[in-house]
C-alpha cells in the first residue's frame, strides 16, 4: 500500500509517496498549479498500482 501527501501552494504543489513502512518510494514531485502541471501529476501516479 502507498500513502500520498500533497503540499498545496498558490503557484506550485509538491507530492510525495511513502510505503506502508513510512519509507519514501520516490523523490517528491513539484508541479505547477496549471493544467500542464495536473497532467504531470497524473503521469507521476501512473507509476503506482491502483486498486
TrEMBL record:
GO molecular function annotations of the record: DNA binding; transposase activity
Domain Transposase IS110-like N-terminal residue range list: 4-45
InterPro entries the record matches: Transp_IS110-like_N
Lineage: Bacteria, Bacillati, Bacillota, Bacilli, Bacillales
Pfam families the record matches: DEDD_Tnp_IS110 (PF01548)
GO biological process, one term: DNA transposition
UniProt name for this protein: Transposase
